[in-house]
Amino acid sequence: MTDKNRAIGVFDSGVGGLTAVKELIRLLPQEDIVYLGDTARVPYGTKSRETILRYAEQDFDFLRKFGVKMIISACGTVSSVLAGESDFGEGLYTGVIRPAAEAAVSTTKNGRIGIIGTSATIRSGSYKNMIRTMMPDAVVFEKACPMFVPLVENGYISTDCLPCVEIAKEYLLPLRAEGIDTLILGCTHYPIISDVISMVMGKGVSLISSGGEAGKYAYRMLQENGLLRDSGGRGKVTLYCTDSVELFRENAEHFLDGLDRVELKIQSCRLE
């Protein structure tokens, strides 16, 4: 039987998965969290399926070393390629596809849902397929936005940043023209530029954070399986990255902005 006092493991290709970590800290402040950001190989979304699977296996193996009770793939690309499956054994697992799809279906009023993600995520059709199993008459529109991840990883994130705004317009205005009322941010990097996305899409479009929804989904899974750590005290949050610790720390502060009393331990690591 899995020990409920073990940590929760989260991984992503970069800093984007910290959107899931932020939600976990908000909902489960007593839990220990181990996060892996594979910043040396970001983005995953432009890689082949075989390469993505190899990277994912290495990410899983790294987190298993900590004896975690649950692993969250906060990477939309990996979640899409795995299609909800993992070989984590007795531990719990979730990606971001089902949680975000459920949130979108429950949010939309007109049944017109947009999805943005990496090229690999959009090619997989995973979000669209999941939505249609839940809401067969949904009208779904997809758009790959490959430039969003490098923009976020390099700090080009504000509504005053002309390159970010212009690229967002190129990607998003066709979706806006389709009359969608709900947009899934199918990569966990995207919420960091949600102000830019909202500005382009307009106030009538609800944004669904795949990372945030995965955090909520993980909370429910842990609760249903009796694996929530007893309340009392604050958990430890340990972040690992495979490239520059300094750049990772700077970006992590953007993603975790607004969280009080969170002590972050950031270390570099290598994946094999």
Blueprint of the fold:
Blueprint: E1 8-12, H1 18-27, E2 33-37, H2 49-64, E3 70-73, H3 76-82, E4 92-94, H4 97-107, E5 112-117, H5 119-124, H6 126-134, E6 139-144, H7 148-153, H8 162-177, E7 182-185, H9 194-201, E8 206-209, H10 210-224, E9 237-241, H11 245-255, E10 264-268
Parallel strand pairs: 1-2, 1-3, 2-9, 3-4, 5-6, 5-7, 7-8, 9-10
Task: Characterize the structure shown.
- This protein has 272 residues and is of the alpha/beta class.
- Helix 9 links the parallel strand 7 (182-185) and strand 8 (206-209).
- The longest helix is centred in the first third of the chain and has 16 residues, at 49-64.
- Strands 4-3-1-2-9-10 form a six-stranded parallel sheet, sandwiched between helices. It has a four-stranded parallel sheet with strand order 6-5-7-8, sandwiched between helices.
- It contains eleven helices and ten strands.
- This is Glutamate racemase.
- Keywords: Cell shape, Cell wall biogenesis/degradation, Isomerase, Peptidoglycan synthesis.
- Provides the (R)-glutamate required for cell wall biosynthesis.
- One of its GO terms (biological process) is cell wall organization.
